[in-house]
Amino acid sequence: MKKTPTPRSINEFSRFEIPGETFGWTGEGQIHIDNSDKQSRWFSTSVNRDWGKALTGAADVEVVIRLRGEQAGETLVAIHPEGTGRLNDISVEKPSLYRFYIRSKATGEVWVSFKFDSNRKMVIESISVLGPVRKKTAKAPIRP
User: In 10 A of CB 4, how many CB atoms?
Assistant: First the structure.
């Protein structure tokens, strides 16, 4: 009898409000009060997370980051095993949600890194990660 691998998954939510508590995310900078609304956030030029072989084979993973920029016109860059994703015109006034779908390697390894193209500080409130997921697309489903 062939043994099937145990399904693995990622389901985590990290809110950066206590100095030094980054929930496995690494990067420079500090968690402190954001003067825009007096809430604690992580001010960092880049953040990274590596889950190792967290999934069973290649799978889609949804990563949602809530952040704002300190200056207008920022482009958020997400680097992951499948490549690089970019989102333009990041909010400056208040943190907004930005969603990326990344894909793990065939071995189940998954990691992601965030930064701005300008290398200026991101003001990060939270990051949630869920995988495996079905990647949502703008196209209507194709019926057989």
Answer: 7
CB 61 within 8 A of CB 13: no
**Better-scored residue on pLDDT, 3 or 60:** 60
The answer on pLDDT for 143 being more than 50 is no
Which numeric CATH code is attached to 10-133?
2.60.120.260
| 3-state secondary structure at position 101 | strand
Q: CA–CA separation, 76 vs 86, rounded Å?
A: 6
Mean pLDDT confidence for 63-78:
98
| Phi, psi values for residue 70, rounded to 5° | -90, -20
Q: Strands of 46-53's sheet, edge to edge?
A: 26-27, 46-53, 109-116, 76-80, 83-87
Give CA–CA dist 10/53, Å, rounded.
11
